[in-house]
Amino acid sequence: MVAFYASALDGVAANPALPTPLLLRLIAFDGGGHGPPFQALHRPGLPEPAVAAVLTHPVLDTRVQFATSGQAEPEQRARLADDLSPKVRAAVAYGPEWTHDPRTKVRPTPNGRGTG
Hints:
With 116 residues, the chain is mostly helical. It contains seven helices and no strands. The protein starts with a helix and ends in a 22-residue tail after the last helix.
């Protein structure tokens, strides 16, 4: 049943007009231990309250997903370079796995924090 809700919530999270309070509720969703919907973590222009919620999210995979997001700003991803989890730090170093447009070049993280 979680898979159905996750796909429905993914569609809601992809809406660029989604108000920040609703986006924060989606980010807080644990998805049965799998974390928030994918689109909530991989959307351009996340507001600072949403970034702060992702950076402190208790589900490890949430922080890993954000660290590899091609839509997140490099400065936002770099804030995970000091995460307690080696998996998150490795994800920051590895950098984004994909972007919405394969022709898009992802900017590296500042100060050499991760390869970007």
